[in-house]
Design a protein that fits this description.
Layout (H helix, E strand, L loop, with lengths): L1 H17 L9 H14 L15 H4 L16 H4 L7 E5 L2 E2 L12 E5 H7 L17 H9 L3 E6 L9 E6 L7 E3 L2 E6 L4 E9 L6 E11 L4 E9 L5 E10 L4 E8 L4 E10 L5 E10 L4 E10 L5 E10 L4 E10 L7 E10 L5 E10 L5 E9 L3 H9 L4 H17 L5 H10 L13
Parallel strand pairs: 1-5, 4-7, 5-8, 6-9, 7-9, 8-10, 9-11, 10-12, 11-13, 12-14, 13-15, 14-16, 15-17, 16-18, 17-19, 18-20
Antiparallel strand pairs: 1-2, 3-4
């Protein structure tokens, strides 16, 4: 506890040093309030229900500091120049990197550095920033207090870009542990349609802490397909909050893919704030060795005639630990809600462990809701059948793992990401799972 308290003080001291240089004059009081919340909450402990199975003490004990010099970007070129580079904005260690970003943008779309907009055009940011994602837990509050840069995405009313917009966050390898606070604000106006991909990639062996917050404001009748791909270093910590607010008849489809990090925690929430809104949350998490992956989701049906579908799948090997905590809330006024939630887990070793907790909280009386969870292993009879047909043990295992994950992968709408993920499933066979770029 002493170490944790001392580490918390480092973040408080960092704010005092950096406050005057942080962008966005209108954020001054908001940042100060968020810091006070972090100071009050401190780092979460396993005594708290939402963190009962996720111990952040290893993270809290390391004195992470913001990077102080420009990174060597040469090792990151291959990751930056991938198949989604056409409409891409890139960041290295939390800072906008023009060399890895595209100047091309489809009609009706604005994408740029959040820090730049906070300095030059704060009026476009102020109505939305910090209004969608509340400082629910201490990591979100810490991001609100200390974020310097990130991405701003604005899709204007009725715009329908055909290609996905890619937000790429790269981490470098440095001598000392460092922390970044990426902040993303995406505003999808009435009647617009967009595909948004957010990627986090780090080199094998990199020791760092990514504390990210993403806010999605989806207007009436708008449609957003959002894909999150987390492939951090297996020595890194990744804490992410994604919060969406949907208007009338708005539709959100989310694909959350977690493959990396020593400890990864994603809190993903959607508020169906307009009648007839639709929400689909798909997730795939893979962990091996001593990795720990935690997914907390909340779908808040706040208005009538809402529809939600949620399917998360986990694959765990070695001594990995997984957590799924899914919560669907149906408020008293949200009559005619239709919601389904499912979590399925595949354990590939006797030492792997997963905690699953699907939840329904229903306060309306005219709804259709159901939920469920399963935990299992590879079917020995099917493995025997494949091997009897001349397929080797590793290949047979790979086929079954790919079939299990394929239900999620096939739902990803962005071809480049879907094809890439299909090639990553081999991580669960012997000799794989090293992580990194």
């Amino acid at each position: 506890m002493t170490v944790t308290l001392e580490t918390k003080d480092l973040y408080l001291q960092e704010f005092e040093r950096a406050e005057k240089s942080l962008p966005g004059a209108f954020l001054k009081n908001i940042r100060r309030s968020a810091l006070e919340r972090f100071s009050t909450l401190g780092f979460p402990s396993t005594q708290e229900e939402d963190w009962r199975f996720t111990d952040v003490a290893p993270l809290a004990e390391i004195p992470y500091r913001p990077p102080t010099h420009t990174a060597d970007t040469a090792p990151l070129v291959a990751s930056a120049r991938g198949p989604l580079k056409d409409y891409q904005i890139a960041f290295v260690d939390g800072r906008f990197t023009p060399d890895f970003s595209s100047s091309r943008l489809p009609s009706g779309v604005t994408v740029g550095s959040l820090a730049s907009f906070l300095e030059k055009d704060p009026g476009r940011i102020e109505p939305y920033l910090t209004r969608v994602a509340a400082d629910g837990h201490s990591f979100t509050a810490l991001n609100t207090a200390l974020h310097r840069d990130g991405a701003f995405v604005h899709v204007r009313k009725g715009a329908r870009p055909e290609q996905p917009i890619h937000l790429l966050f790269l981490s470098s390898r440095r001598a000392a542990p460092f922390v970044t606070y990426p902040r993303v604000l995406a505003v999808i106006e009435e009647g617009a349609r967009a595909m948004l991909v957010q990627s986090f990639i780090g080199p094998a062996g990199g020791t760092y802490f990514t504390n990210a917050v993403t806010e999605l404001s989806i207007g009436d009748g708008a449609v957003l397909d959002y894909t999150l791909v987390q492939r951090e270093s297996h020595d890194a910590f990744h804490i992410a909050t994604i919060q969406a607010r949907q208007g009338r008849n708005a539709a959100l489809t989310s694909h959350s893919i977690a493959l990396g990090a020593r400890l990864a925690r994603t809190d993903l929430g959607a508020v169906l704030n307009g009648e007839g809104a639709e929400c689909t949350l798909n997730g795939l998490y893979e962990a091996t060795g001593h990795q720990h992956v935690d997914n907390h989701t909340t779908i808040d049906h706040a208005t009538p005639h809402g529809t939600s579908r949620e399917l998360y799948k986990g694959i765990l090997d070695g001594k990995a630990r997984g957590v799924f905590d899914g919560r669907i809330v149906v408020r008293p006024q949200a009559q005619k809600t239709n919601a389904i939630q499912t979590n399925k887990n595949l354990l590939l070793s006797k030492e792997a462990l997963v905690h699953t907790k699907p939840q329904l909280e229903i306060f309306a009386n005219d709804v259709k809701c159901k939920h469920g969870a399963t935990i299992g292993q590879l079917d020995r009879d099917v493995l025997f059948y494949l091997r009897s047909r001349g397929i080797g043990p590793e290949e047979a295992r790979r086929i079954l793992i790919h079939a299990f994950a394929g239900e999620i992968i096939d739902k990803v709408q962005v071809d480049a990401i879907r094809n890439q993920l299909g090639g990553c499933i081999f991580l669960m066979v012997p000799g794989a799972g090293k992580g990194g770029t």
